[in-house]
């Protein structure tokens, strides 16, 4: 909070309030009286970091919010200038990807990708001096991500041919690998012990041997999970 007043006659009360994303209610804390004492001169102070958003975790394609809060006093510049930078030192400005708001205190990053998992930095300046550069790491997570051309897709195959449906996925960088795929054929779960003469189930693929019409016209679903969530792929097999 920044208060600008020269009224020394009476104290005035202040409160701070908090609200959450899941509730529109504003919850107030205790009330305090602010007394204004006249002084001839207040010494200036360079900005000092007081709080930052640590352990920020956000999911791919979502947004992330980073914050740095600084103290300091400058009679010529009541609020310090806060700068956010990328790892290579590039200063971040507001555009379609980034939004620097709240007098520079907040950095919002839109449409996250794995490449956004880096260490950002914040620094504040006023006419008295500047703060140290402070690192703020963003951890970008994701549900399993299918490798290119490794997601299930519809297929048309001739009779007596074998058909293999892939379901190969990975987690985001530095995340725990996903579990083996769980398979469903025509809404019925199948496993490694399913009739091996007809269907071979592996960790990341399902093979149907010597397909026949109409028995092997089917729809297949695979589900891959990791610590963030599940990813589902589906495909239908048409036999001609």
TrEMBL record:
Keywords of the record: Disulfide bond, Immunoglobulin domain, Repeat
InterPro entries attached to this UniProt entry: Ig-like_dom, Ig-like_dom_sf, Ig-like_fold, Ig_I-set, Ig_sub, Neural/epithelial_adhesion
Domain Ig-like residue range list: 47-134, 144-238
Top-level taxonomic group: Eukaryota
Organism: Biomphalaria glabrata (Bloodfluke planorb)
SMART domains cross-referenced by the UniProt entry: IG
Descriptive protein name: Ig-like domain-containing protein
GO CC list: neuron projection
Presence of the UniProt keyword Disulfide bond in the record: yes
Database matches in Pfam families: I-set
Gene3D superfamilies: Immunoglobulins
